[in-house]
Design brief:
Length: about 350
């Protein structure tokens, strides 16, 4: 049986899809098949393969080099979109915006894809260009990208601008909005609760988190009792500051169904919030002892969160730097994660947050 180029390219797409869906073992098994026959691929596809392989190694420099080389060969292929996403994950929002502007100029229909608006609003947000972010978000609401996604992007900008009344009016719309593939009203409400908290709108954050819990309570039992529904409840309780209830929720999830790294991390930060430093440290040590590379940079990031809540700022920055060398993504999550809010204004943390390009 001979693998032709078309089939190999199909395997590459499948490998990327498995990776995006959180199935690295499946992605790796396909990638190894392709790697053995990479000489049959075009130069463009060989660069795309190197991008995937670099990503699995946590080699951000290698990923960027591979995609830039692929884009030099095919300026408006799939590698260009992958490059935009990678630039955002590599903390290079200005370069991401330059690529998006060129894509939009040469491929006007790209604006119909939610990825375009998500990437653009994320870049504007990280750069603090919130009026431009708001304009782009409102354009997204009017596009084929989808109304709920656009509302989430708009709410993020409104929180950053301190327009609390407009934000809460938007929350009223989100609560009754239909879900879209990849986004529920609950997901959007959590984003806005975190953003409001990150931008100093504490009362609004508490209210949005409470609205999120009420939304969840009104959902069918199948969703409420699913792993996703229970995790979302824990998230809302955490943002609301109900640390003991959040701890209980995540402990129950850890016992039967939740991803081990996330379960240990949430329990560690909850213990730290409740003032139990010894227990929090015990969870951090369990995270550090997990086998690599299966645990990936996420375990290191959770250790950084635990250190941050315990007030260990230098250790937090050291662990975050380590996680980034292991392949952790930069992004808005870092800016709005409540566990890192005490580090804002701390020079080494601010340096880590500052866009690189």
């Amino acid at each position: 049986y001979s693998l032709d180029t078309t089939y190999l390219r199909g395997l590459m797409l499948a490998s990327a899809a498995y990776g995006n869906a959180g199935h690295p073992a499946h992605a790796d098994s396909l990638r190894l098949i392709i790697q053995a026959r990479k000489h049959e691929l075009s130069p463009y596809d060989r660069y795309r393969l190197e991008y995937l392989a670099s990503g699995r190694r946590g080699d951000r420099t290698g990923e960027l080099a591979a995609l830039r080389s692929a884009v030099a060969l095919v300026p408006y292929g799939t590698a260009r979109y992958a490059l935009v996403g990678l630039l955002l994950r590599a903390n290079r929002p200005r370069e991401a915006l330059e690529n998006l502007a060129d894509l939009h100029l040469h491929l006007p229909l790209s604006g119909a894809w939610s990825f375009f608006w998500q990437a653009e609003t994320r870049a504007f947000h990280v750069l603090g260009q919130h009026e431009r972010e708001l304009a782009a978000a409102r354009s997204a609401r009017d596009s084929a990208a989808g109304r709920l996604f656009g509302m989430a992007y708009e709410g993020r900008a409104l929180a950053a601008l301190g327009r609390v009344d407009d934000l809460m009016s938007l929350v009223d719309e989100i609560v009754v909005a239909p879900e879209q593939p990849g986004l529920t009203p609950g997901d959007a409400l959590l984003t806005l609760a975190q953003e409001a908290r990150a931008h100093g709108q504490r009362d609004a954050a508490l209210e949005i988190a409470a609205r999120g819990l009420a939304w969840l309570d009104a959902q069918p039992q199948a969703l409420r009792t699913s792993v996703a529904g229970r995790v979302r409840r824990g998230d809302f309780l955490y943002v609301h500051g109900d640390w003991e209830q959040a701890r209980t929720t995540f402990a129950a999830l850890a016992a039967d169904s939740m991803d081990l790294v996330e379960a240990l991390g949430y329990q560690g930060t909850s213990a730290a919030r409740l003032g139990d430093a010894d227990r929090a440290q015990a969870f951090a040590e369990q995270l550090a002892a997990l086998p690599r590379p299966r645990s990936g940079p996420d375990a290191t990031a959770w250790r950084a969160r635990i250190a941050a809540v315990l007030g260990r700022r230098d250790e937090t920055v050291r662990l975050l730097r380590q996680a980034f060398t292991e392949g952790l993504d930069h992004g808005i999550w870092l800016h709005c994660d409540p566990d890192f809010e005490s580090l804002r204004g701390f020079g080494p943390f601010d340096d880590l947050m500052r866009p690189a390009g």
